[in-house]
Amino acid sequence: MITKFRSIAVIALLATAVLSYSSCQKDNKTTTTKDNSLAIATQIATNFYKSIGNTIASQTTTGLPTTTGVRNGKKVNDLTCGELIEVPYNNVYTKGDSVKDVMIGTNKYVVSCDGTQPNGYTYAGSYVNTGFSPYSTYDNSVDEYYTLKALLPGFAKMQVDGNQVSVYKFTTKKDGEYMEQHNSYALSGLTIDASSRPFDITAGTATFSSNGTNAGRNFSYNGTITFLGNHKAKVAFDGKVFDIEIL
To answer: Which of 8, 19, 135, 214 has the fewest Cβ atoms surrounding its Cβ within 10 A?
Structure first.
């Protein structure tokens, strides 16, 4: 499950962005402040886009074919409406004695149909990710639920709705600081055009909420990403709205 390892890394970047931003907001006591809101908004939209690209918008890891496949004149799969496909996994990555990453979870797919023709699926995923690096130890858990409907064959264009809930816990090795972050993401009407690369999110919203503690300081962070197509989006948080170009 290479996709899951990439996804967790991308989400961790977003977690770091949120924690860094909240820390600056809490600690800045000077009269002159630098507003990093635009940079944070850009990072949020870009990292979310990358996480989608590594999972449901990936041409190689969307999980299921949309129709029966034939190879060399022989049928190689035959999806049926309502079929449940469950894929458990247990992955361990190590790099010497300094890095260890363990990912344990299950992906479940239920095939959906238009009449008798498979045209999408619902996806439910749950995993726990634990490990350590030279800089920190971590214990993360993620639950995801999405519905995907193919708007063009092979998921070249699709509509995605659903949600993700996650908890991230980090302890730094340098100073022993503890960070805990609870996140929720709600995807509504995302239209993803994956017919060319880089793919484009042409419509829909992703509402996000993040709260927790960072080295003993509480934070709460809420906003919405509205996708406009042509790799552009609007990101709203803290009463501000930013026009973002997603590269």
So the answer is: 135
Q: Domain span at residue 201?
A: 2-64+78-245
User: Hey, which bits of the chain come out as E strands?
Assistant: 69-71, 74-77, 84-95, 99-114, 117-132, 136-150, 157-172, 178-193, 200-214, 217-229, 232-237, 240-245
Question: pLDDT of 83-130, one tens digit each?
Answer: 998 888 899 999 999 999 998 988 888 999 888 888 888 988 888 999
Whether 72 is in a domain gets the answer no
Does residue 73 form part of some domain? Answer: no
| Reported pTM | 0.72
pLDDT tens column, 203-245: 999 998 888 898 888 888 799 999 999 999 999 998 999 999 9
Asked, for residue 71, whether it belongs to a domain, the answer is no
Helix (H, G, I), strand (E, B) or coil at 211: strand
